[in-house]
Amino acid sequence: MSLKGKHALITGSSRGIGRGIALKLAEHGAKVAIHYYQNEPAAKETLAKVREQGSEGFFVQADVSRPDHISRMFRKVQSEFGKLDIFVSNARPEVPAFFQPPMDITLEQWDTALDSQAKAFLVGVREAASLMGKGGRIVAVTYAEGSRTGGLQPWVGMGSAKAALESLVRYFAVALAKRGITVNAISPGWTEDSVLNTLPQQAQDLIRTWHARGWTPMGRLGTPEDIGNVVALFCSEQAGWITGQVIYADGGASLMNPAVPPEIQLG
What pTM was estimated for this model as a whole? Predict the structure, then answer.
């Protein structure tokens, strides 16, 4: 599978899952635009790693919760690349900006979640599509468990935002199908070097132990490289008949029954 000659933009790609996606696409030959919000040194580090893969690219700063910043970002992409083949919407705000239960979340925190996800995707896809030809690939990174459950109460803002984003994936998939552009979403499970690492150490240890014990049937957490592999598959020519889907990339964790201990489920 080769992505040589392709041009990609991944939001939130200075670190974590976004960096894993950027490096995997670069490994397959794509040139990569690396987006960051505040951490320019991390973006520079990602670009250096892209170049180590034998590819090229640039980095661009934007607050994806602001439509004018998104438009400016795509103008930079057009100026540097002249076109776009792959757009991955991955960026999210830091946890304190939205992490409050439904009875406590402020309207500002609610708006931060919705603006950085659903609105950013709406604006981003329309900008990206204007630069794409047949064979374009659009991928959103979601968290489908959070969009359909209610147990993790402080996730209400982001869960609602991701639910709206997943709905947009389906609408855009239909809208862009005749142009040969696919639109899909990927839902990672718990992943190292991601939001997990911002949690208190005790919470991290509990999550890692629980998943290694069997909640993830494959017995481990995901890695940014795992998610990058899935995005690369979606971006391949062979994936041109897949659109409007939410794909779980979680080692089987979403197949488990939350009402039954994993030791019983796994026999």
Answer: 0.95
